[in-house]
Each structure stands twice: as C-alpha cells, then as structure tokens.
Amino acid sequence: MSPGLTPEQVLQKLDSEQAPLVVDVRKPAEFGVAHIPGAINIPLAELDKRIDELRQDNGVLIYCINGSRTRKAEPIVYANGISNVYHLDGAFQGWIQGKHPIEKGGVKKTGW
Fold first, then answer.
1. Domain 4-97, what fold?
2. N or C: at which end does the chain have fewer Cβ atoms within 10 angstroms?
3. Between vectors from CA 101 to CA 36 and to CA 53, what angle results, nearest 5°?
4. pTM given for the model
5. Domains of the chain by residue range
6. Using an 8 Å Cβ cutoff, are 22 and 56 in contact?
C-alpha cells in the first residue's frame, strides 16, 4: 500500500529537516532488543488507540521485523486519514543485514 524507502533513503531523511516519525510496530520486548535509532514503539495491537501520535507533518515510516505487521498496520493508518506513510524496504531484517545503525534497550514511549 505505502511507498517503500530503502534503508539509505531513510538514513538520508532522518538526517534532514524532513525526518519522518519512525514507528516500530513490533512488541515492546522485540523493540528493546534492537530498533532504528530515534524510533518509537507503538505495537500493532495498540495502533488504533494511539493513532493520533502518527499525525506528523513529515510523514510516518512504519516497520517491523519482516513486513507482515507493517502490512497490517497500513490499512489502520490510512483508514484514520493519515496518508503520508512509508514502509521500510526489506523491513528491519534488511536494515540489520545492511549493518545500519541500531539502538538497543529501553522502550521509547510517546503520549503517555
């Protein structure tokens, strides 16, 4: 559904004034193991309740480990009127395989 961004494109955007909100839709324990630097964790099961956190001028990048939860998240996001949405090409597995930077540890929360 959403256009994909390569890890290189994501890194470039994150280094600019047009940085999207990066949202990891995996479970908190998975997020704590490793995630994209600066990402927030909104598990797929909570997405519909926390949708207002995604309303950003620079768009939203959604990802999970292999893309399956991303594909489930996209219709929820679009149904709530958020159209500036991207997904991570290759998902987080591709990010890791490409040896791109990761953060480990604590869950970053917003709106709580």
1. Oxidized Rhodanese; domain 1 (3.40.250)
2. C
3. 20
4. 0.91
5. 4-97
6. no
- With contact defined as beta carbons under 8 Å apart, do 10 and 92 qualify? no
pLDDT value for 111 = 39
pLDDT of res. 93: 97
- Side chain identity at 31, as an amino acid letter? F
The three state secondary structure string of the chain is: CCCEECHHHHHHHHCCCCCCEEEECCCHHHHHHCECCCCEECCHHHHHHCHHHHCCCCCEEEECCCCHHHHHHHHHHHHCCCCCEEEECCHHHHHHHCCCCCECCCCCCCCC
- pLDDT at 112 > cutoff 80: no
